[in-house]
Design a protein that fits this description.
The protein has 59 residues and is mainly α. Helices cover 88% and strands 0% of the residues. The chain is elongated, with a radius of gyration of 14 Å. Keywords: Membrane, Transmembrane, Transmembrane helix.
Length: 59
Amino acid sequence: MVPTRTARLWLAAVGLALCVASALVSFRLGMTWAGVLLAVLSATTVVNIGWVAYRRRRG
């Protein structure tokens, strides 16, 4: 069984990759509002990954 924090890190990493890729595609297609929204979600995901990694190291 995968520990909860490890699974959360993997899911956040996949979400980050999808958000970044979608943001780049949105900007390329001229959908600035969607690109900005996805960039904000990407930044939030980076903070989440940092927090989960910190909690995982702490125990």
